[in-house]
Amino acid sequence: MLSGAIMLSVAGCSPEQRPLAAVYVDQQGTAHALLRSCDDDGRVRGPALRGTAVRATKQATSDEGQSTAPEASRTEEPWIGWDTRGRHKAADFPLFAPPSSWAAETRGPQTLQPGYSYELAFADPDDSYAYSASVTFDAKQLAGVPDGEVLTLRGTMTREAFEVLARKAC
After folding, report:
1. Which residues pair with 53 in a beta bridge?
2. What are the tens digits of pLDDT across the range 89-105?
3. Which of 22, 82, 120, 151 is the most buried (most CB within 10 A)?
4. Phi, psi (5° rounding) for residue 4?
5. 132 vs 20: CA distance, rounded Å
6. What percentage of residues in the chain have a pLDDT greater than 90?
7. How far apart are CA 8 and CA 87, in angstroms?
8. pLDDT digit string, tens, across residues 117-153
9. Beta-sheet pairing, 87-89 with 21-25
10. What is the pLDDT of residue 94?
11. Statement: residue 64 has pLDDT above 60
12. What whole-number distance in Å separates Cα of residue 47 and Cα of residue 86?
């Protein structure tokens, strides 16, 4: 009986992942973000784009078997992209140029970098943590999205199909 209660408790901690975020490349070659909200006011909380270097599967070690990675890289994953705090209106915008009213903190190059995996994500605007949304990708995946389509957590689809899916997710 206790194990069932623990399982319910653990399961209740993670917000539901909804298909409300997408990325695509326009005809000029600019990467874009699409964020949709289930909030009546069209808000999202803490939208961010974080790119992290894809690590090799084998970590370098010294002759003594100790890791040769610098201490900081073993304890804190460095990232590039942008991060925001607070609630903001859901929007469509160039991926590396979030609306100026969001006062985004930026780190590193603000262009897609080879060897990086990116996550565009946000949470529901209330403090309930009922849902979150994200899409993960790298430069090669994004470049492979066909014209007129977007990349979502459920794969590629037309923008219209994404809009219908986002509405249904709410």
Report:
1. 116
2. 999 999 999 999 999 99
3. 22
4. -65, -40
5. 8
6. 66
7. 29
8. 999 999 887 766 788 999 999 999 999 999 999 999 9
9. unpaired
10. 98
11. no
12. 9
Q: Are 119 and 135 in contact (CB under 8 A)?
A: yes
Exposed e or buried b per residue across 136-164, where buried means at least 16 C-beta atoms within 10 angstroms of its C-beta: ebbbeebeebeeebbbbbeebbeeeebee
Ranges of H-type helices in the chain: 2-11, 71-75, 139-143, 159-169
Q: Which residues neighbour 39 within 8 Å (Cβ) at sequence distance 6 or greater?
A: 90, 124, 125, 126
Distance CA 23, CA 159 (A): 10
pLDDT at 84 over 50: yes
